[in-house]
Amino acid sequence: MSNTVFVNEIFETIQGEATYTGTPAVFVRLQGCPVGCPWCDTKHTWDVELDKEIQPTIMFLKDEDAPTFAKFTVADLMECLDQFQARHIVLTGGEPCIYNLEAHTKAICDSGRTCQIETSGTFPIRVDDRCWVTLSPKIDMPGGLEVLDESYTRADEVKFPLGKESDIRKIAEQVVIKMRTNCPLWLQPLSQSPKATGLCIKAATEHNWKVSIQTHKFIGVR
Fold it and tell me: Which residue, 160, 215, 153, 162, is CA-closest to 20?
């Protein structure tokens, strides 16, 4: 089991989406993603070019988005997390599940923190059983990757980025039928668009789903 990952950045903020909305959190943004979502706001995390690697530091923070990353062991990560007060840790990306995160998530949970991972579901979810899994299924993306059925089985919540009417049909026909019973489904408006927000509210009302607003953007934090 490899315990090394490439980390793009680590920062403390407020979780602004879905079940953990409002929770102080430390985000660990991992490097690398082959999914290719057109609307992605972290495209600087897609590529893993070794000439962009830097050495891990205790406070691995950035002033702006950049494709540089550091190689972190479990011990490196835990040493860095000790510098922050927030006790909820969110592993995001990029696509974090390109890595085996069993050792990292176990160490986080063993330390008394809560752990959450945000994934597209296109790679096996290798995390500790105590880790909260937020599945944001990316269907028909340019990378050509399929959302794994096992990702729906493992998910603690599903969060679907919605931008147009056809997305609602896609959710009904390809997502809901694979979800576990009582697993919450959140609709998240793409790019905070008023049109997308209206569609989310309409669909959530009709199907008894939920709406996830990116509240961190409204309060001016990352």
Answer: 215
